[in-house]
Amino acid sequence: MTKPRIRKHKSGQLRREIPFYLMLLPALVLLIIYSYLPMAGLVMAFQNFRPILSFANSPFVGLENFRFIIALPTFQRAFRNTAIIAFWRIVTGLSVPLLLAILLNEVRRKWFARVVQTTIFLPFFLSWAVLGGVVREVFSLGGPVNQVIALVGGDPIMFMGNNNWFRAILVSTHTWQSMGINLIIFLAAITNIDVSQYEAADIDGCNKLKQVWHITLPGMLPIIILLSTLAIGQLLNAGFEQVMVLYSPIVYESGDILDTLVYRMGIGQQLFSPAAAIGLFRGLLSLVLVGIAYWSAYKFSDYRIF
Amino acid sequence: METTKTSNRIKTSTSRKIFTWGNTVFLTLVTLLCVSPMLHLLAVSLSTNVYVIGGQVSFWPRGFTTAAYEHLAVQPEFFRAIWISIQRVALGTAINMILVVLVAYPLSKEVKVFRARTIFAWIFAFTMFFGGGLIPLFFVVHHTGIMGTIWALVLPGAINVWHAVMLLNFFRGVPKELEEAAHMDGANHMITLVKVFLPLSLPALATILLFTMVGHWNAWFDGMIFMRSPADFPLSTYLSMLVMQADVTARVMLTPEEIMALAEVDDRTIRIAQIFLGALPIMAVYPFLQRYFVKGIVVGSVKG
């Protein structure tokens, strides 16, 4: 019905498309201002930016800012910390929910499974502004964790001010906060596994452990591969908001990451251009990683965003 | 679920019983791990400072007192922050929802219906993968003159491309015949969107609505950098300040006498009470709404 009409006059098609352009317009304006203008503003990474002179009149200094940050020990430290923390966030963030999903699938009482799943999901909905307070309180000197340590006769540990512990705190509390999402995704994948496979295995006398190894895990392999490849894009994401509310100068050595360094240099010390240079460096590297992630996810799992 | 029932009928071995028992205990512990910190916070907020600082409060209040909450009841800053958060959630959610619908509808069309569709889709999608970062955004917000106003909290994040992608995928599932029938009746795109697409997309809209509201309630960092005065902080920003000011070094190597003296002036229980109250609205509505969240996660992330 519509096809011949489209072919008849091209100008008629444009007129029919006008409502689409009008619908997109408000969002497009906001997107240009608050997403694309900041990208253009990254030009300040190549300038000696001064707010009074603005972007137009600040002098260009070439790669000076990049030479400055690469030689900066705090930058090297932040880069290393970011990569280490992000890597372990991915490893535990995938493996812990995977284990929980397999265990939860073995639960026969449905109400119990539902209560467990619902409760595990809860911390995900709380802000790090709140969770920061929770974590600091729980790991404080008089807090529950140290109470348990005292109970078994150990010496109290100042977790939040100890470089040997800080990364472990970050990674474990991030897993604790976010494991609900991946748990739900893994559980959805398990329910898609063909039930008859288990029945056949039962008849063959396969025990539960063997069934998990030979049926459940292979059945979940596609989703495990997909989540792992997509995680490549997160290799420079060490959880800015979480680190912001939990770190302090004592643990910069193990916990300062690129994002917090950008914040302190840019907003705190007003070193705008070097901070923007770090931001651009991190942004470009992330773009490459996300590109690799989506390309692999498309290649191995036929994953597409649209 | 059926599988386990079948296997149960075939054989219930002793090792199976031990596993089921151990599994239940383990999962119960994991579940407790997710709620007990909040119970600890509640216990601390209802305890006397001396016990809290002495590390004697676990999950039950020691020296029960509602002093912290009584103190809060007369603190205007706390209530002002709540009021700003409510305004932010109302305004921000309204703007986000209108925009996500207006973006998702044209982008859900096929290329032969909307020829520039792919170009626009990429213009939106690119912002998911790259951004100018904190410092340039700070100056853009500054230059657009919204610094220190509530607009700085709602406009920069007004377009959530993830939500738009989720909704456009949902729109694509709407039967073509319904849309064509509406057009036949003379309905334009706006009317078709409101009368046909939106009523059929209520589950997706509900999920996006909830995520947007929670997102606005929880956001705190933008308030910290875009609001000029702490008097304009929304609740989450106000709470993040309390959290970050809590000094980890303050209570190392103190004598009991010093601890007692500190207890007189320390506002730790008041701080904890505020953090607990900040988490309360979400914890209160969460059990009733979580199934929408679950649906959204499954639809949004594992669609092929």
Q: Which descriptor suits the 3D outline of chain B?
A: globular
Please state the overall shape of chain A, judged from the principal axes of the Cα atoms: globular
CATH A-level architecture of chain B: Orthogonal Bundle
Give me the count of strands of chain B: 0
Which structural class fits the helix and strand makeup of chain B?
mainly alpha
Q: Which structural class do you get from the secondary structure elements of chain A?
A: mainly alpha
Low-confidence stretches of chain B: 1-10, 248-254
**What percent of residues of chain A adopt helix (DSSP H or I)?**
over 70%
The biggest beta sheet of chain A is recorded as: none
Binned strand content of chain B: under 5%
Q: How much of the sequence of chain A is in beta strands? A: under 5%
CATH-scheme architecture of the domain at 89-301 in chain A: Orthogonal Bundle
Number of helices of chain B: 16
Distinct helical segment count of chain A: 15
The average pLDDT score of chain A comes to: 91
Order of helices and strands of chain B: HHHHHHHHHHHHHHHH
Structure in words:
The complex is a heterodimer of chains A (306) and B (304). By secondary structure, chain A is mainly α. Chain A has 15 helices and no strands. The relative contact order of chain A is 0.12. Chain B is mainly α. Chain B has one domain (70-304): Orthogonal Bundle (MetI-like fold). Chain B has helices at 2-10, 14-45, 49-53, 67-73, 76-107, 117-129, 134-143, 151-154, 161-171, 176-184, 189-200, 202-218, 221-226, 235-245, 256-265, 268-301.
Give the arrangement of secondary structure elements.
The complex is a heterodimer of chains A (306) and B (304).
Chain A lengths: L1 H7 L1 H32 L12 H4 L6 H7 L2 H33 L4 H12 L6 H11 L5 H8 L14 H26 L3 H9 L4 H24 L8 H7 L5 H4 L2 H11 L3 H30 L5
Chain B lengths: L1 H9 L3 H32 L3 H5 L13 H7 L2 H32 L9 H13 L4 H10 L7 H4 L6 H11 L4 H9 L4 H12 L1 H17 L2 H6 L8 H11 L10 H10 L2 H34 L3
